[in-house]
Design brief:
Radius of gyration: 20 Å
Largest sheet: 2 strands, antiparallel
Oligomer: single chain
Distance between the termini: 44 Å
Mean pLDDT: 88
Number of domains: 1
Low-confidence stretches: none
Strand content: 15-25%
Strand order of the largest sheet: 1-2
Number of helices: 3
Length: 74
Amino acid sequence: MLASTLTIKGQTTIPSEVRKALNLHPGDKVTFKVSDHHAIITKVEPFDYEYHQALSGTLSEWDNEADDEAYNAL
């Protein structure tokens, strides 16, 4: 089991074994999911804006009034 000490400011160092396993580097973002007194840390993959812009151009089959009406109730 790996351990780290919490500072008075609520900061801690992620152990090197965890950083290696998650391929974490300075500037990377992580998320925490807390459940039943446990926390799960996950690396957040960067959002590729250009990729998503290019992808959105291929989704025109769902871009119509009937679909808009069907999904408005969700």
